[in-house]
Amino acid sequence: MKFTCDKAALSEAVTSVSPAVSQKSTVLALECILLRCKGSVLSVIGYNLELGITKDLQIEGQEDGEIILNSRLFSEIIRQMPNGELSFATDEKLMTVIQSGGAKFTILGMNADEYPELPIIDQESSFSINGKTLRSMISETLFAISQESTTPVLTGALFEGKGGVLHLVSVDGKRLALRREPIDFAEDFRFVVPGRTLNELLKLIGRLASGDDDLVQLNVGSRHIIFECGGYQLISRLLEGEFINYNSAIPSDGKLRVRVNVRAFFDVVSRASIIINEKVKNPIRAVFGDGQIQVSCETSLGKVSDSIPADVTGDGLQIGFNNRFMLDALKASVSDEVILEMSTPLSPIKVLPLEGEHFVFLVMPMRLKDDH
Questions:
Q1: Less packed terminus of the chain by CB within 10 Å, N or C?
Q2: pTM of the entire predicted model
Q3: Assign residue 263 a region: left if phi > 0, alpha if psi is -120 to 50, beta otherwise?
Q4: Class of residue 359 by CB neighbours under 10 A (exposed 0-12, middle 13-18, buried 19+)
C-alpha cells in the first residue's frame, strides 16, 4: 500500500473519524483506524461496533492495500507532521513509513482482516434535509435524551416523518423536547437514533458547515442508519423498543399563558440556582400573576427572591420546577420570547414559540412543601 496526499486533508479526516474509535477495548483492532487505498481514493474508517464514521479522500495512489493503525498514535503523528504533501507506504510485514517534509515515522500496523466489517444497510427509506436545519433540530432536543439505561430506547431521539413533517422527539421522564420541520419524503417513517450518534453528528455537521444549502442524506435500514454529508458517512445502529406516545404526554391546552423574555427569565432562574447544588436540589418556586413572575427558593444554603415583568393571561398560579430542566428548555428555545402554558401546580409547564408549534418543550413540575 502506497500513496501521497495532502497532510491537512488527511489530518481532518483522521480527527473526524476518531470519535467512532474505541478508547479502550479487549479487541485491539477496535482501538485502530482502518486505511483502505484503492486507485485514487483513500477510505479512512473508524468503527466501534455501534458507531462508524468514514471519509473518502482523493489521493495519488501508487499501490492498493489496507492496514489498521492505532488511532491515538496515528492521529498524533499526522497532526504534528509538517504541512504539505505527505507520503505513506507499508510493506508485507506491515511496517508503515509516514513522511512529510524532513519528518519521518516508522510504525507497525496490524492486518486489516482483524477489523470488523461495517454493517450493510438494507435500505427501507431515504430522504435529505438541510444540514443547518438538522443541526438546529438536534441541538434543541439533545438535552432531553435520557441518560438512564433502564429504558434503552429513551437514550435516543425519535425521528418520525408523517404528513410531510419531520418530528424529532426526546424524553427522559422528567421533560420532553419536540421539534418539527417540513421536509420532503416519499413514505412515513419512525426510528430512534442513539444520543451519542446525534452528538457526534452535531459536531461533524458543525465542522463541515460551509453554506446554508448543504444537505445531509439519511439512508435508513431496519437496524442501522447512514448519515452522509460533506464526503463523510456516519453509520449507526438504531435503538429497538417502543418509544412513548409523545402526543398524549403533551397537554392540549393551558389555562394560564405567560409571555416572557427568554433572557430575563433565564437570568432570574440562574440567580436562584446559586443556592442549589448536587446535594441540595430544592425546587424553584414561581408565582405567575399581576403582570410579573416572582421567583424564590429556599435551601440550607440560604434564601433568594426575585421578579421580572411578564404578560400573564389567565388566573394566577404557583408552581415548582427543577432549575436545570427549565434552564435547558430556555436555552434550547433560541427565541427572544416564549409562551409558558400551565393548567395546575402539578401539570407540566409547556414552553412554546410565540407563533406556531415548531418546538414544544415540557418541564415536569416539582411538588412544593405547601402543595396539597
A1: C
A2: 0.91
A3: alpha
A4: buried
